[in-house]
Design a protein that fits this description.
Its EC number is 1.5.1.2. The protein is an alpha/beta fold. The protein has twelve helices and eight strands. The longest helix has 28 residues. The chain is elongated.
Amino acid sequence: MKIGFIGGGQMAQAMISGILNTNSEQVINIHGGSIRTEKYAHAHGLNYVESNKQVALESDVVILACLPQHLTAVAAEIKSVLTTQVIISVLGGVTLATLSTALGDNVAISRVLPNTPVNVNAGTIAYIHNEPLLAQSESANQVDTLLQQLGSSYLVSEDQFSIFSALAGSSPAFIDLFIDAMAQAGVKYGLPKDQAIAIVTQTMLGTALQVQASNQTPRELAAAVASPGGSTIAGFLAMEEYGLPTAVVKGIDATIAKDQAVD
Ligand SMILES: NC(=O)C1=CN([C@@H]2O[C@H](COP(=O)(O)OP(=O)(O)OC[C@H]3O[C@@H](n4cnc5c(N)ncnc54)[C@H](O)[C@@H]3O)[C@@H](O)[C@H]2O)C=CC1
Ligand SMILES: O=C(O)[C@@H]1CCC=N1
């Protein structure tokens, strides 16, 4: 199966890393309309082709990884050569109906919302296939297998894509913000920044594994950390007082509102 990328930015590069981690021999065609993408392609042994149309012609699975505002122009370029190819769109906020209108009603399309940890095959990925793709079970299975290689994938109804996008697609940025804030506090008290980041990151990994393995809620697990009269409850209450939970929910509100305004 030949895979093609239209767009060679952050998400394309994260997916390509994950794909090559699984199979370093995978043929990947790419066009990104910029010298940066061409340089990236050459540095990673990808097949940089001259146009988006050429990506579509030479690939079995075409991953649309440009920005949502590029869809109309890209669709106009590739529509005439779409026959048996499967399209995977990672365009945030763009529905299957819009994709079908742009690319053709009979084109097999999967709407996918990955996140950047796909680069280490630890992504959290939403997907939904359109009717033409569902009618080709072998192609749908190929897409499912590709996504499973990149992380944990979830079949999500389209009306829940925005909330999924906020909690998984965007949240690596929010979690990075939290890691950085904790590490800054470590620096304030004398730790080197890289050591502080390593400590916080390992603690976050351990806590995430613990939440996954436990029957208790995160609130209950937090209560187990906070010894009566101890230091944790003092820090926990100060974080609540300064609005951490409210700030997080407000951030998710803004993320969802922006995603819903795309299409
Ligand atoms: N960055 C992320 O964590 C996530 C991004 N996405 C989606 O992935 C898509 C790409 O986002 P990023 O990689 O973050 O943006 P980016 O700005 O890093 O990449 C966009 C790419 O599109 C290319 N491009 C621009 N015009 C083009 C054209 N006419 N034909 C072909 N390529 C063209 C650019 O050269 C660039 O390589 C967006 O639709 C976004 O919603 C979805 C989930 C997560
Ligand atoms: O920021 C964005 O629009 C994309 C969608 C989810 C993550 N990145």
